[in-house]
Amino acid sequence: MVGNNTPVFFLRDPLKFPDFIHSQKKDPRTNLPDPANHYEFWSNHPQSLHQITILMSDRGIPASLRNINGYSSHTLSFWNAEGVRYWVKWHFKTNQGIKCLSAEEASRKPANFHQQDLVDAIDKGQFPGWTVKVQIMTTAEAKTYRINPFDLTKVWAHKDYPLIEIGQMELNRNVTNYFAETEQAAFSPSNLVPGIGVSPDKMLQARLLAYQDAHNYRIGANANQLPINAPIAAVNHYQRDGAMAGGSLSSGGQMNADPVNFYPNDRGESGAPVPDASVAEPPMPIEEEAWIKTYNTIDDNHYEQAGDLFRIMSAGQKEQLAGNIAGGLSQATPSVQARMLEQFALADPDYADLVKKAMGS
């Protein structure tokens, strides 16, 4: 599960991801943070407005990692014993309650306060937990839902797809070697267990490749043989070579020890690994039936959900949102400011008015 502490993201097109990251990093000439670059990118990508509204709200700076929700953000899928697939969004609701900091409060905190808080809480036995919930949509409903259910910039309305509680998640142990257990962890959305699958979400499809590919370079081709990444169950596949390859199963490692190292082969009856049809994933259509045809998004509604979020905020939350936006947007060019204010107005006229007021214009 590779997710975020927000239910949406800035983009739905993976081709734009490198440019997005460049715009959020330090300026390439001065090596200094440059909010003007952030807003210049966002002004040219109105699909980012929903995420901007979350990021710049009071929830943009959590008081601790124990006080945030988690989300798959992407649409994933379940399938049952009959091979019927359902689309799913995951939610991890904090049992500690949501707590946030203002920018002024955060400025008075030490740089590592989130890490310190989490380590201290677990060391004291105050294990943080999250209630795990899902939203479930049938494949038939997905074809007629009013929004693209695989659009990473949008949420599924809870009134349409209520949250269903399925369990609890708890963090109850700190690592003993930060490098070995954290720096070398190779999280990837392509690490799936039987019964959980992916979806036609284009950003997810890119991450399925990009995350594992990055780990292959960062850690090595056999990153999944390291103890922190290795599965608990025995591994039965034909991948056994490459740099830093571990031992075979017979010697406590994570490699199949069968003499044959290719598949298909004729040795299944002799014990060589073969696919288990009982846990096989049902086929996912990749053409018209998967609803991923090229379509024009120029007239897509980027503003409704951002406006809905703005309208449920309290007056104080709206003021904080506007103030946080104004601090960075005031450093942008007049053209960028005008385009961003137009986006805010399309979400809700009061949204734009509050940002204008906070900017002193």
Topology, element by element:
Blueprint (H helix, E strand, L loop, with lengths): L16 H8 L10 H9 L5 H7 L14 E2 L4 E4 L5 E10 L8 H5 L5 H11 L5 E10 H6 L19 E7 L7 H6 L12 E2 L4 H17 L85 H8 L3 H15 L4 H14 L1 H11 L2
Structure, described:
This protein has 361 residues and is α+β, with helices and mostly antiparallel strands. The chain has 3 domains: 8-56 and 303-361, Hemocyanin, N-terminal domain, CATH 1.20.1370.60; 63-174, Catalase HpII,  Chain A, domain 1 (Beta Barrel); 200-289, no CATH class. It has 12 helices and 6 strands. It has helices spanning 17-24, 35-43, 49-55, 103-107, 113-123, 139-144, 178-183, 202-218, 304-311, 315-329, 334-347, 349-359, and strands at residues 70-71, 76-79, 85-94, 129-138, 164-170, 196-197. Strands 1, 2, 3, 4, 5 and 6 form a 6-stranded antiparallel beta sheet that branches. β2 (76-79) and β3 (85-94) form a beta hairpin. The longest helix is centred in the middle third of the chain and has 17 residues, at 202-218. The chain is globular. The protein starts with 16 loop residues before the first helix and ends with a helix. The model has no long low-confidence stretch (mean pLDDT 91).
